[in-house]
Specification:
This protein has 6 helices and 10 strands; from the N terminus they run αββαββααββββααββ. It is of the alpha+beta class. The protein has 2 domains: 7-52 and 202-253, no CATH class; 80-187, no CATH class. Strands 5-6-7 form a 3-stranded antiparallel beta sheet, with no helix packed on it. The two termini are 32 Å apart. The structure holds zinc ion (3 copies). One zinc ion binds at residues 94, 96-97, 99-100, 104, 134-135, 137-138.
């Protein structure tokens, strides 16, 4: 069983009241936020800003909605509806492009997550974000021959806390993007990828979630195992560094 941190510490912790008030001033002066603190409070670990309760607070929003969880085991193959989404996204051309450069006809969907072909038992295993339309040769390459190279390009992802829609992928046609579960994509933010190393996961949250450190931000901190860490600086867009010293993800602000 996980122990729960008092909810007050799931927020930026400041060493002194003065520091907390200085950050408050900064938010105000930036003028970018409609959500402003109303007070400061002290707890055993330091000082926090107090925000007005959010209207949507009861139900923290999941970062990017995944495919509906299924009661039964996932179907063996990729559902026809998902295949149609992939055909639309790829135009029927290979999205991997390692060997073909994105010029060959796509043959079948390649799973990004899972050690070999066929994906995992995860509920998102057949999400468009987890799949790439692939030519025969590239499918074989990323599943068995060039696994490390594929991981450095986000074409293959390791099963872990990061989800496929959080891991940038170098798409043969779109370049470095994040794929969503509806067949869409958006540019991966700067700092989340670089040639020669595995990409850093990107956590999408609204500006409000970032400032109040609830919703998608709190969910990610929990999932990435940092909710129990002894405080951290107020998160901003870009690479997030926790109080424990590690930088588990890049924060990207998205519209609510
Ligand atoms: Zn606290
Ligand atoms: Zn190919
Ligand atoms: Zn940490």
């Amino acid at each position: 069983m996980k122990t729960k941190t008092p909810t007050c510490c799931n927020k930026a912790t400041f060493a002194s009241e003065e520091e907390a008030r200085r950050y408050w001033e900064r938010i105000k002066n930036l003028g970018v936020s409609r959500v402003l603190p109303t007070d400061v409070e002290q707890c055993m670990r330091g000082w926090h800003l107090v925000f007005p309760p959010s209207e949507k607070e009861e139900k923290p929003r999941k970062p990017l909605k995944r495919t509906k969880p299924k009661k039964t085991a996932r179907p063996k193959g990729v559902p026809a509806a998902v295949k149609r989404i992939l055909v639309r996204r790829s135009g029927g051309v290979c999205e991997v492009g390692l060997s073909c450069g994105g010029a060959s006809e796509a043959h079948d969907p390649a799973h990004r997550e899972g050690k070999k072909a066929g994906g995992t038992r995860a509920e998102w295993s057949n999400s468009p974000a987890t799949l790439l339309a692939a030519c025969r040769r590239d499918h074989r390459l990323i599943d068995g021959v060039e696994v490390s190279a594929a991981e450095r390009l986000g074409l293959k992802v390791r099963s872990g806390v990061a989800r496929p829609w959080e891991i940038p992928v170098k798409h043969a046609r779109f370049g470095w993007v994040l794929l969503d579960d509806k067949g869409g994509h958006r540019p991966a933010p700067a700092g989340s990828y670089a040639e020669g190393r595995r990409p850093t996961p990107v956590v999408a949250c609204t500006e409000r979630e970032l400032i109040q450190q609830d919703g998608a931000f709190a969910e990610a901190m929990d999932r990435y195992g940092h909710l129990q860490c002894p405080g951290w600086s107020a998160p901003v867009e870009g690479l997030f560094t926790c109080g424990c010293g590690s930088s588990p993800f890049v924060v990207q602000v998205v519209a609510s």
